[in-house]
Design brief:
Elements (H helix, E strand, L loop, with lengths): L2 H8 L16 E11 L8 E10 L6 E8 L2 E13 L2 E10 L8 E2 L2 E2 L5 E15 L8 E16 L13 E14 L9 E13 L16 E14 L6 E12 L7 E3 L21 E16 L6 E14 L9 E12 L5 E15 L2 E14 H7 L10 H4 L3
Antiparallel strand pairs: 1-2, 1-19, 2-3, 3-4, 4-5, 5-8, 6-7, 8-9, 9-10, 10-11, 11-12, 12-13, 13-15, 14-15, 15-16, 16-17, 17-18, 18-19
Amino acid sequence: MTKWARLAWLLSVISITAFAQIDPVKRQLFQFGYNAALEGHAPISGYAYYYRNDPEFVRSNLTLRLAVAPVYLDSELGISHALTEHTDVGIGLAGGGFADTYSEVRDGKYRPKESFTGHGYETSLSLYHLVNPQQQIPLNLLVRGILHHSIYSRDDDTDPTFELPDDRTICSVRAGVRWGGQEPILFPSLAMELSAWYRGDFRTDADDYGYNEDRQVESDSHLFWGQALLAYTLPELKHNFRVSLTAGASIDGDRFSAYRLGALLPLAAEFPLTLPGYFFEELSAEKFALGGVSYLMPLDQKQQWQLNAQVTTAYVDYLDGLEQPGRWNTGVAGGILYRSPEDFLKVLFVYAYGVDAIRGDQRGAHSVGVLLQFDLERAREMFNPADPNRWRGWRLLGL
């Protein structure tokens, strides 16, 4: 991969957030995240994308969702009440460059000679069913079929003797239930979720690859996982906390279907398996349990500056061929969050330490990062020229 391609990858979405229901809220968000490792040669760890959600797109029962990165697009047209009053349909189309890139990390060391670029595109059909329409907290059922095609190519650093996997088409089915949910934003003030999921991947080509075909590709893989989380803001103190537990298991997992844990990128995936201080996707697991706690405490009366602390720990049953000593992996992080009035801008500057990350003959790894969210809808309300009283942003600048 050339340096320009690496830059494009950095600015691409690692895995754009999906939902178990059609998003009913109008949104325009710009999301950016980057982690920089202070030890070792690390794979690129970052994302940047524009997220747009348009309810009542063209017609009152249509919702258009777009997530746009420099070299990747993910889209879905949601059709409300398509089958029944409480059953919606989503038609998805996604694809672009570097989406299926694979980085080999083993024993805490990134191995570019065994890594390669992957491009991909896919189409999907989803059914969303609201099980309990009379209840305040929604219980949603999702069933999704996905047809995905992957194309692999060598990076500049890929070993010439390393055989790439065959290009392949993957037919996938995903099903799950989600009670509650959370918005696709940084540090939501309130969120609650209990969910359980299954995904099956069925590959048209499952030839082995690597050095003398030493890496196996399974013809089919099956994943089962669940998540419980709670985010809440204390009314009087305005302190915000979040606790979460995610656990998963797999049958016939391989490098392309394993659970991959690492880095602090909370909006890189629908279920981000974050471990502060670790490389992005450093650990590959057949089974895992990941628990985390984060806390935000205001430092001023306006709550514009806040202190953030996070602790995450995971018990990992490693994928065959990617084992390492010790099953427990813990990361901690601390930082400063700036929140503008009306929350149209959030920026977190963070330091992270991977307590059990392997670096050479030692344990422990340091990293720094930045997470940024710009809410265009809130900014538009704040700087609305139709209402002179809404130009409060100028006063922030002392003008």
